[in-house]
Structure formats: C-alpha cells, structure tokens
Amino acid sequence: MAIVLEKNSIDYISNFSPIRCDTHFKYNIKQADKFFSNTKIIWVSLGSVLGEIQNGMNISTEYYSMEKTDILYLSVSQIKEYGLIDKNQNFLTEDTRYLKNFFELGPNMVIITRSGTIGVGLSTNHPSFNFDENTYVASGFVITAKIKEGFSANVIANYINLFDVQKYLTAMAAGACQKNIAQPTIQNLPIPEVLLTTKTSFDKYFSEYEKESLKIIGSLNKLEKRLVELKNDISNSIKNKIFEFYK
Amino acid sequence: MGGTDDSSIKKQLFDPFEGIVKYSTAKYLFHLSVDVPLNKEDFPLKCIGIDTKLADSYKEWEKTKTPHLVDLVKSNEKPQIQSVYIKLSGKEDKLGEKLKDLDDNFGTDRIKRIWSNIWDYIWGGTLEDNKKFENFNKVLLAKIYDERKTKIGTPYVFQRKYKGGIVQTDIELANDIDLLYRKAYREYLSKDKSIELINVKGIDFKEFQTNLIAKCVELLQSISFHQNRFKHLDTLGEFYETVIRSAFKQTKGLFLTHPNIVLFILSVLDIEELVKEKLKNPDEDNRYRLPFVIDPSCGTGTFLVLYMQYVQKYIERNHKKISGGDEDISDFIERNMLDKHAFKWVIDYVHGLDNEPVLATACQINMILHGDGSTNIYNADGLDDFNEYSKMEVIGAVNILSSNISEPKCYYSKKSLNKFDIIISNPPFSVNINKNDLQNNFEITGKSEAYFLERWYQLLKPGGRIGVVLPESFFSVEEEVERRIFLYTHFNIKAIVSLPNHAFQPHTTTSTSLLFASKKTTKEEEVFNELWQHFSVEFDKKYNKITENIPSGRESIDFNIKNRNDVKSIFKILHKIEELSNKVFGAGFVVLPYYEDKFLFDEDNFNKIKKSIRDTIASIKNRWILHQVSLKPKHIFYNFSIDEIGYKAGKKGSKDKPNDLMSIFGSDGKKLYNIKYSHTWDTIDTNDKETVLGLIKDLRLWQ
User: Fold this and answer.
1) Euclidean distance between CA atoms B108 and B239, whole angstroms
2) Sheet harboring B663-665: ordered strands across?
3) Considering Cα of A153, then A159, then A161, then A167, what sign does the dihedral take?
C-alpha cells in the first residue's frame, strides 16, 4: 500500500503555466522545480528552435509485416535515452508508403515519447539509426520534431533526458484515462538559452556521454550473447545427463 | 364493492352466521370485495374465506383476524385450499395448513440466487436496458408497498393467487401488481397525494411484458424484505444495491459511486462535528438544527442514503453526550431522530435532484428502503434556473431551492442560493448540455462537471463544504484552467485525493479525484476580489513598463548583426526585455521565445517579434495575479494519491482488496474492505495513519 501525501498551495502551483492542482503534478514537479525556478538561468521556450512538430503515425496492424522489411515501426518501448533497441521490433509492409499521412523520420530530428514511458528524447542523429538501409516510422505515442537549421538535435534530446526535465515532462502529462504529453508542452518547455547559443561545447559534452554509453551497450550486447551461449550449454549438458540415465 | 375491513366481516359474515338459523350451518363464510379496476379487462377481486370449524364466532375469529382460505368456492363444492402468503400476527394457532407468512429467515446467498434468476430471466443475454430497470423498479415498489400496507390477517396481493381453484393468469397478476404500484406511487413518490390512480403512469406492459412481471412475482413473493431475522440485514437495501449496480445501464457520463468512496467522503467532511455544531448552535429562529445537505445530481442516491445512515448512526450512539443535559437539544433529537422518529429529520435537511426520471425514481425508492418515507428527491435538472424549482411541489415546509435567492455580488455576477452546509456529489462527466440555456445563470462555460462546480458554489452557504468526485482532467488539463481559476477564486481547497483508475471500472477507466473544499466566506471573497482588482492594475502597469521598451517603429533599431552589442541593436533590446520581465514578474514567469540570428536580424520580422513578446507576456496575466493574491494569505492544501480502495471490479464481479482510504470494521470487529451495503459497517478508525483518512484527520483540514 502506497499513499502519496504532498503539501501544496495555490501560490506554488501558480508558478507553473497550467496552474494544476492534481497530485500527479505536485508529486513530479517538486523533483524538478529547483532547476526550473533557478533565477540565474535565462530561459527560452524550446518551440523557438523546433521546426515542424507532429505526432507519429497510428498504423493499423494490417500494415505490419510478418517478415523483416526495411521499414521499422518505432514504438515507445524501442526508444531509449541511449539509442534504439531492436527488441520486439515491428516491421511495416511497402504498402505503408502509400498511406496518405505517411511520413518517415529524417536526420536532425528529435523524437520524444508522449505516452507510456513519458518524456524520453532521442536524436535521429544517434548512431543506432541507419538511414542508408532503413526507413523509420514513429508510432502515434511519439512526438517528432525537426530541429531548425543551425541547432543540434543531439543537444536537445540530451536536454530532454536530463532527470529534471523528464520529471517536468512527466508532471506535465495529463489525460482523462492514460496520461500523455501534448505538442504544446514540448514547444513551451523552458530551455536554458546557453544550450542554444553555445551549443558546440554541449554537443561535445554529450558526444562523450554517447561514446561511453555505446561502449556499455556494446558490453551489454556481448554479455547477452554470452548468456544465450550459457543457456545452450546448460541445456545440452542436462539433456546429456538425461540420455545417460536412460541408456 | 370496496375494501375489506373488520366491520364488514362482522356485519356481513358473522352476524348472519351467528344470528340467523338458516345460515348457522354454513361450513365456510366468504367475503368478496373488488378494488378499483384500472381497465376493462381488470377485475381485482379479493376473497376472504373463513372455515367455521376453526372460528365459529366473530369473537373467536377476532383473535387473529386471519382468513383460513383465500380462494373462491365453486358452487356446492368443498373449496380447494391453495397455498397462500398472508400477513400473520404470530399468535395464530388454528390455521389452514397452507396459509403462511413470508419467509424472513434467509441470508445474502438466497438474495444473490433470486437476483441471479431475475437477471437471467429479464436481462439475460441482452445488454442492460434502462426501460426494463425503470419497470422493474415499479414492480419492486409494489412489493415494498404490499409488505408495508397489508394488514395482519390479510393475504398479500403480491403473489400469484387462485380464483375458483384456477391459478391467476399473467395478465390478471400483472394488473394486480400495476394497481399496487400506482397506490405505492401515490403514497411514496407523488407530491400530489390526491392524484387519481388512473392518472398515475403505471407499469408499461409493452416494455415490460406481463410474463416478466409474473416471473418477478414468482421469484419474490415468498420472501420478506421488510422483516429479516438473519444477521439484521437490510435485505431490501442490499437487494436494491445489486439491482441498481447491475441493471442500470451506466453510460453518458453517469457512473455510480462505490459506497467505499462515499463513506470516505462523508468521514473526511467531519459530518459529526457539523451535526454537533448545528445542534448546539441552531439558526437564529431556533428552527433548524442540522446541516442542510444536497446532491444536485443524486443518481440512485448512494450519497444521500449513506449520509442519512451515517448521521442517524452517529446520533443514536452519541445523543446523550451531544445534548449534555440541554433539553432543547435532547427534545429535538427525540422528536426527529430517535426510535420511531428515526430518519424523520431527513424531510427537512436532505435534498436531491436528478434530471433523469428513472434515476430520480430509483433514488426515491432507495431512500424509502433505507428508512426515509418522505423524501425531498426531485426529478429536476440540477443546473436549472432557481426560479424553475418554485414549480416543484415540495414535501417539506419550505421550498428551500427557490426561496430567498441572492442577487449578484461584487465578487460574483450571478444569482446564488447560499442555503446548504454540505454538498456531496458525483456529477455527470463530459455530458453535453444546452449551453444557451445556461448563459444567464453561470459564469463558467465548459463541460457538465464545470457547470456543477459553479452550481455547488451557488447552493452553498459561505463556509459550506463540498466532498465531490471530479474527473482528474479537471485538475490537470490545459483546457480546464479557467474553470480551475473559478475554483481557486471562490473555494478554499482542503484536499484532493487521486483515486486509482479502477475506481469506476468496469464501466469506465476515466481517472478521478475527490475534491474537498469549502466555499469562501463573504469576507474572504471580498478580500480576494479586492486584491485581484489591485493586482490586475499592477499587471497592466508592469506590462506597459516592459512593452514600452520595444520601439514602436523599426527606424530606431539597429538590425545589423555585426552591431549586436550596440545599445540600439535588436539583440540588446530583446535582452533588456528579458531582464526586465524577470525583474518585474519574477524569474521563470515569462518564458520568451528564442529567435535565431537569421530571424532576429531581419527587420521584416520585427512586427512578428513584437507581437509574440506582447502575447507571451499577456498570457501570464491571470496566473501572475493569482500567484500574488494567493500569497496574502498563503493557502495550504493537501494532495493524496493511492493505489487501493478496497475493491477491484471487473466484468465478472468484484474482488476485495486492501483499502488505502480508510479502515472500517464490522459489528464483529473484523476489518471490512468492500463496503457494499450500508448496514454491514460498524465503526471507522479515524486514527489509522496507514490510511488517508487517518492522515487527513491529523491535518485538521476544516479548522
């Protein structure tokens, strides 16, 4: 049994744009308010550097392919802070390309999960994207935004993944049944001006993180491979024991 | 023709039998009477037969006044004695073996079996149907009326009877039940007690065929709802809860609130303290001594039924302590709240409205079943103009809903009633309502729940309390921000309890929260309004102070990117605006757009930039004013969120779960989780800090 209890006040909630008084908001925003109420930071809205912003596509299962194709349908579960993962991947048929509202992801975009696991940002410049070989289509539970020329999708995605920003976005999630974030929330997201003006240094900083994270993912993949081998070894060994017993 | 009474039995049967020789050898005496027929085919004949071997004089018969058979005898034949249910006094010793009273010794299992049979027969294989629900209600009310009104020694009407040894047909039986219902309607539900039975809208045999009525009678005729010896169960209340929850189709934003949630709301509202306070400090004319309560969207009446039982239970246990020797108080309690006067107070203090006729009727029945025989439940729109309520025929002394309507005030532009101390409700969510009709009476526009928020405000006395269910989106989504400002302006929020999204399953997964708040006092409203006006002027000054730093024309601005640090540079001007905004409104209040150099230093974009800055600053106006006003004084409230509420319902039934809301115990001291029915709970632990109720009581919300 878990009871959440939060002390709240009208003057506190009126610090934030939708003046929300629900428990979900108070519980999550308090974990980010120190960062966002820092008076020394010059804040601007993220929308200023976003080009076209839209939700991903809701594609009917009739367009799902049973075989591997080069059109990957990215659901929320494949989008992680450190790159795309290819577990439980869905592939789409070529017919998908003829859908009226079809649109594919391109470089220098940022994708943000809006429902399910809320507020995970990923830059399409991340090495886990391979635009030479694949077409990527985002699911409807994802917000996609083209980043204006001169700005880095990588910096913005990494900013979104900061703990405080994720808490902020989680707090901003709302909905009658399932909570989700809407495009205006992303457009109005405050971002320190310094991230936009001196983007190069942050780009470098985030690149280092990316390099390290890729190393870890590589190690994890190796370990996972070893785990599968171990499972095979033990299976064979037990099987042999059984055969020996009934010899 | 006409009814049977004791004098007609004496004069028409026993006087000739005892006094006239030629009748003195009669083996059986029969008294026939006919009730008012409602149509040509209907002939509601009643027969009382007396076996002179068992009662050979009126004096002998008078001891029990019980007929020995209730069927017609065919000429020159011995009557065929059929089984019949008859109201007995319990003192009878000479009775026909086939005469018996209703079974009053059964438990919940039997109730469940009966309901299951009825459900299969009437609703089985179909979706819920509110027409069936409405007509089934009528059959049920006929049963209640019959049990209550049948005199001792008289057969119940609510049973399949015999005429000349031949069993009643379905149509004959249905006509009897229809007549019973009409009488019940006139007695319990109609405000016009002189209404002719023919003018009462009876059971609709097209919507609810006679074979269905007959089946209901067959299944219900043998059991007593009124009397039950088994575990002191409120049998009918329990049965009706089941009927409502399974047979009423819950759609269009109308979802029934689980008793666990209602009981929690009542406990948080500190009803006990309010009752005690009112008893000790009545209104000026010393007339009203209990809180006035209303649910303006009462549905089937779960809130009101539990409220009246909650208060009744509290008074019965604490009346001596409350009166403390004060005779005025104890006199009021005795005359309105104790023993045979239990629930008498409800007529003056408990009110309900519902726009759906079937729900209003269900609520009335529900109230009757739980002890209130003369309810203030009306089939009326809870959002109507108050003057419309003057057309309602009320049962209480005063039509509280249309008297002394208060005119608009400086802080509120619409009319108010200011009469009720408590509002408990779960309004319809997101229901479309005709907005044109509401413009004159409401400041708010929006979804149905928003209108109800304002109506609660209008109904409440200053300082009055609400304990209500609202969709969580009301508290969170951007579109509801204006409605929330109304809440912050006119109410003091005390607590918001976010419920898990299975609270209203299987009917809807909509997330809901409970809102506890009190209407601001007149003084608080005046102060708030005054401060709002003050800061509104302040805002305009600040807005002007900032925007006047944006040159009106582009001539005086330097758009050369190379001169970005020059005083006249557009870059420097915007930087100054940014600094000023943070200084004037406080950091973070204004988040201005970011302009990339290419856009910023293009003088053709100047007007766009100017407009976007002005719009951004103007958009924070209400929020900034609210922020300033709410600092004087600072208003604290509490947010709660929980996972478990004592039950989890699915399409196949409900499972008991832990209850984070409160700890409730039965009369055997065992902890209860799923409070389905009001009579099963005994005490509530208000000190359990493992529950929200325990934590809230510790916070002393209402002080």
Assistant:
1) 9
2) B671-672, B663-665, B683-685
3) negative
**Token match 């209730």: residue?**
B70
Q: What is the pLDDT of residue B127?
A: 47
Mean pLDDT for chain B? 82
State the Cα–Cα distance between residues B86 and B158, nearest whole angstrom.
Answer: 10
CB B354, CB B301: distance < 8 Å = no
Q: Is the dihedral of CA B243, B246, B252, B253 positive or negative?
A: positive
pLDDT recorded at residue A107? 92
**Rounded to an integer, what distance in angstroms lies between the CA atom of residue B473 and that of residue B498?**
11
Chain B residue numbers touching A188 (CB-CB < 8 A): 591
Is the alpha carbon torsion for B507, B508, B511, B517 positive or negative?
negative
Considering only residues B469 and A31, tell me which one the structure prediction assigns the higher pLDDT: B469
Chain B residues close to A47, C-beta within 8 Å: 593
Alpha-carbon distance values, A21 to A10, A25, B513, B700 (Å) = 8, 7, 11, 20
CB contact, 8 Å: A11 with chain B?
Answer: yes
A·B CB contacts under 8 A: 164
**Is A19 at the interface with chain B, CB within 8 A?**
yes
For residues B382 and B401, is the Cβ–Cβ distance under 8 A?
no
Spatial contact of A95 and A64, defined as CB atoms under 8 Å apart: no
pLDDT interval class at B679 (50, 70, 90): very low
**CA nearest to B349, candidates B273, B280, B294:** B294
Contact B496 A9 (CB under 8 A): no
Task: Look at residue B384 in the predicted model and tell me its pLDDT.
Answer: 86
B615–chain A Cβ distance below 8 A for any pair: no
Q: Which of B552, B542, B622, B610 is nearest to B581 (CA)?
A: B542
CB of A49 within 8 Å of a chain B CB? The answer is yes
User: Which of these ranges, A60-64, B233-237, B484-488, has the smallest mean pLDDT?
Assistant: B233-237
Burial class (CB in 10 A: 0-12, 13-18, 19+), A132: exposed
Using CA atoms, how far residue A161 sits from A49, A158, A179, A216, B90, in Å, is: 17, 5, 19, 18, 79
B167 in contact with A at a CB cutoff of 8 Å?
A: no
Is B304 a residue whose pLDDT tops 70?
yes
Tell which residue, B701, B693, B694, B700, has the closest CA to residue B266. B693
